[in-house]
Amino acid sequence: xxxxxxxxxxxxxxxxxxxxxxxxxxxxxxxxxxxxxxxxxxxxxxxxxxxxxxxxxxxxxxxxxxxxxxxxxxxxxxxxxxxxxxxxxxxxxxxxxxxxxxxxxxxxxxxxxxxxxxxxxxxxxxxxxxxxxxxxxxxxxxxxxxxxxxxxxxxxxxxxxxxxxxxxxxxxxxxxxxxxxxxxxxxxxxxxxxxxxxxxxxxxxxxxxxxxxxxxxxxxxxxxxxxxxxxxxxxxxxxxxxxxxxxxxxxxxxxxxxxxxxxxxxxxxxxxxxxxxxxxxxxxxxxxxxxxxxxxxxxxxxxxxxxxxxxxxxxxxxxxxxxxxxxxxxxxxxxxxxxxxxxxxxxxxxxxxxxxxxxxxxxxxxxxxxxxxxxxxxxxxxxxxxxxxxxxxxxxxxxxxxxxxxxxxxxxxxxxxxxxxxxxxxxxxxxxxxxxxxxxxxxxxxxxxxxxxxxxxxxxxxxxxxxxxxxxxxxxxxxxxxxxxxxxxxx
Length: 491
Description:
Blueprint lengths: L2 H6 L7 H28 L3 H22 L9 H25 L4 H12 L15 H28 L3 H7 L8 H29 L4 H12 L17 H14 L3 H10 L2 H5 L1 H24 L4 H16 L14 H13 L12 H16 L12 E2 L2 E2 L2 H27 L4 H12 L15 H15 L3 H7 L1 H4 L8
Antiparallel strand pairs: 1-2
Helix pairs in contact: 2-3, 2-4, 2-6, 3-4, 4-5, 4-6, 4-20, 5-6, 5-19, 6-8, 6-9, 8-9, 8-10, 8-11, 9-10, 10-14, 13-14, 13-15, 14-15, 15-18, 16-17, 17-18, 17-19, 18-19
């Protein structure tokens, strides 16, 4: 019997009733969340924007209520969880494009903007956000905030279902992992509280640093979700205030930290930071990218020392944390800085955070597996050596997940890049734009604009969804075996 047929005998297809039930429950949450921009627009006396927001919210609630009442087994399979979250993100993007289209964007541009919002990317079809109503700008950043919240909940839940070093790093307790679902639910609740407190802290921090109340709100929603939508066309440069820029950069770093780590620090003290591998790696990556970026910018002769000191740390942190706040014109920054930023964007932030990219822990796993492969060339065949990270053994699934995500990231980038090259775009600028989309960063060399051909808008939109859902979830939805086959019917 072939490998595929052997695996098929152990597999279960998704159950439609289970998917519809959970999709209905998430639809209820989404409908309630959409009431927030409607209320804000109404408070700002912008009924033209409030009405479509309220209409979308009402429609979602009317559809979701009967779905949420479907009787179905409460236990989710892994493939069912992936189908539900993919459907939720796509549904969110489509429904949220309606109010954005009412704000003056064409339907394709509104759909692109909503995909960029819910995936916390930040690539935008809006050239001059200063000219748009405050209600429109709030709705964009609000989308990023709860898009980041959604992927955070999803990632924590899946980590609990897929034990390994990532789950140990993020979800382990003093007593060890017990029931994975119960553990995930507990950590999700704590992460929700932490995410909300971090948002409130960010608003206060930016306001204290000199940002206006509205700017503090908009940029905090975008920073803690590592999204990058701004109320200024110049991004952080629009603040005109170095303290506010530094505060926003600090929020970017805080957003790229795994949310469960905050709870562990609160319980175990600051020594938990020193014990956390990804936290140390994030600080090292931000510092290293800042130094290297500043060096190549200074060497290029295009920037003065004061310009480098002012912009290099902000740009490096924005790329490494995948937040994507703009600080300088990236089209003329030069080839070497662009390549460094591409590398930083690809690596990204921490697992269990709202950041995109391959993720630091996965990169560390790939490096350790590569190191072991090279080491084995000088070991005897019978030597039993297994890869470890911080004295924790990596099982085969850890390496599989890291290598699969890394390979799919590279394949998506290359295939999308080729499409842009066929349209005649400059090679490095096109590569930068594609990596920014796949890593859900939002930094742009200027290619993303309303005049971009429709096919390329679709490519970038698909890249953002693939990157945000980490490839595997979207591919699972497309597999026939996900839908066809025997069902797991509880006794």
